[in-house]
């Protein structure tokens, strides 16, 4: 890119014919002397009026265009955006407030529910305890009853057994007497003898 | 090739495209005027077309236009305060004009409008003229307080005022010469290095190998010139803002 541009720009002044074709007619038309090229172009005062005029025209139009058209538009775009952003921020803040309120309400409800749950639990616990107590008492009572019954039965069985022990001893004694003595002892005698031994 | 000598000055020549002469003044439409028109058309068309959709979420090109707008706006607000915003169109026009003129000048074969001292001086004179006219309009003779800093001993005052006046008068000169010299020097350097490439590659294989170095230099310089093109437009706009601040608040 630079090679070609430099090459071409360099060749322009050296190629006299092309230079004359491009610049020659304008030079002859306005009578600018050839030695104008001798001075450093930016310091050539002959070009000053033209440059100042065209600078004034172009810059003036540019200024007016920017001031009237471009800047209100760009400023408008930026203002609209800033408005929109602040609006969105406001809305976000509002929504955040709502969300915070919802969270607070939720937590309050949660706390209430916890309290209720505790109360219900306590109640259920108490009820269960009371029920268990009554059941226990009932069972204890029935157990006591059964125990009494059983003791009574044991006592009666024991009494019966003791009674039978007497008759068994009498039978045994009569059998022994029969075997040893060979005579029959009377029941009354044997009973008296057993009673005296037992007593 | 009759002359292999590269003429780095050739690119600054002004050729008349449409000769116009009024009242003895040569007011021809030249290649310089053509590129002023091109600068204005390119800059205006870019700003106009990229913002035509007025998107809430800007595209890439619309972002560029908005960035330029806000960049200059912030620059002016920082330097001259909110009162300075009445000069926003002026500073924005200056910045865009100088920037686009500098950038267009980087294209091969293109004429660089800002490489002519009279153009940069015209713009600088416009800036200083605005400062002086607005300063006197707003503050009357109070504007002259600009040259009298606070807290200077009385016996030093004449000297300080003289220095202040000289510094004020040299502003349009420094403003215009800075831009002009940067563009001129950059383009001459670029042309000289590109010329080395051509001259060396004409020497055969060794020359072509040797021309790699100046070619690399030319590429690097182009990048540098791109930076300079932007930087000088920025410097021009920043200094304009600071001078306008003097017009708005002449007491230091």
Q: How would you describe this structure to a colleague?
A:
The complex is a heterodimer of chains A (199) and B (252). Chain A is an all-alpha fold. Chain A has a domain at 155-198. Chain A has 4 helices and no strands. Chain A has helices spanning 2-14, 16-30, 48-181, 187-198. In chain A, helix 3 (48-181) packs across helix 4 (187-198). The radius of gyration of chain A is 68 Å and the shape is rod-shaped. Chain A starts with a helix and ends with a helix. Chain B is mainly α and 252 residues long. Chain B has one domain. Helix content of chain B is 67%, strand content 4%. Chain B has 7 helices and 4 strands. Chain B has a two-stranded antiparallel sheet with strand order 1-4. Chain B has a two-stranded antiparallel ribbon with strand order 2-3. The longest helix of chain B has 45 residues, at 157-201. The radius of gyration of chain B is 22 Å and the shape is globular.
Keywords for this structure?
heterodimer; A: 199 residues; mainly alpha; 4 helices; rod-shaped; B: 252 residues; two-stranded antiparallel ribbon; two-stranded antiparallel sheet
């Amino acid at each position: 890119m630079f090679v070609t541009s430099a090459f071409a720009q360099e060749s322009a002044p050296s190629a006299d014919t092309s230079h004359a074709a491009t610049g020659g007619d304008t030079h002859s038309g306005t009578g600018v002397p050839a030695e104008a090229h001798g001075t450093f172009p930016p310091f050539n005062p002959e070009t000053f009026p033209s440059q100042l005029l065209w600078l004034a025209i172009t810059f003036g139009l540019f200024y007016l265009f920017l001031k009237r058209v471009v800047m209100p538009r760009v400023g408008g775009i930026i203002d609209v955006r800033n408005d929109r952003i602040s609006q969105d921020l406001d809305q976000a803040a509002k929504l955040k407030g709502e969300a915070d309120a919802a969270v607070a309400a939720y937590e309050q409800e949660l706390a209430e529910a916890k309290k209720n749950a505790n109360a219900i639990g306590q109640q259920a616990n108490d009820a269960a305890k009371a029920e268990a107590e009554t059941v226990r008492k009932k069972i204890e009572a029935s157990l006591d009853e059964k125990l009494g019954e059983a003791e009574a039965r044991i006592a009666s069985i024991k009494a019966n057994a003791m009674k039978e022990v007497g008759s068994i001893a009498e039978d045994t004694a009569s059998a022994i007497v029969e075997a040893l003595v060979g005579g029959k002892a009377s029941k009354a005698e044997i009973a008296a003898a057993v009673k005296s031994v037992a007593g | 090739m009759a002359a292999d000598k590269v003429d780095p000055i050739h690119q600054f020549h002004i050729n008349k495209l449409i000769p116009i002469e009024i009242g003895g003044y040569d007011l021809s439409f030249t290649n310089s005027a053509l590129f002023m028109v091109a600068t204005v058309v390119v800059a205006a068309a870019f700003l106009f077309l990229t913002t035509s959709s007025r998107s809430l979420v800007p595209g890439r090109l619309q972002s560029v236009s908005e960035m330029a707008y806000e960049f200059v706006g912030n620059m002016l607000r920082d330097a001259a305060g909110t009162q300075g915003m009445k000069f926003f169109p002026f500073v924005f026009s200056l910045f865009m004009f100088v920037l686009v003129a500098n950038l267009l000048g980087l294209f091969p074969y293109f004429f660089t409008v800002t490489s002519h001292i009279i153009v940069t001086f015209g713009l600088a004179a416009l800036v200083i003229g605005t400062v002086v006219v607005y300063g006197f309009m707003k503050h009357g003779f109070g504007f002259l307080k600009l040259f009298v800093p606070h807290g200077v001993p009385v016996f030093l005052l004449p000297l300080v005022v003289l220095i202040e006046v000289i510094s004020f008068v040299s502003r349009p000169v420094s403003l215009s010469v800075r831009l002009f010299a940067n563009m001129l020097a950059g383009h001459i350097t670029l042309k000289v290095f590109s010329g080395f490439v051509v001259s060396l590659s004409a020497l055969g294989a060794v020359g072509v190998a040797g021309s790699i170095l100046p070619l690399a230099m030319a590429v690097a310089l182009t990048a540098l010139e791109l930076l300079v093109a932007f930087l000088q437009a920025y410097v021009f706009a920043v200094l304009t803002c600071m001078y306008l601040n003097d017009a708005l608040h002449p007491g230091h």
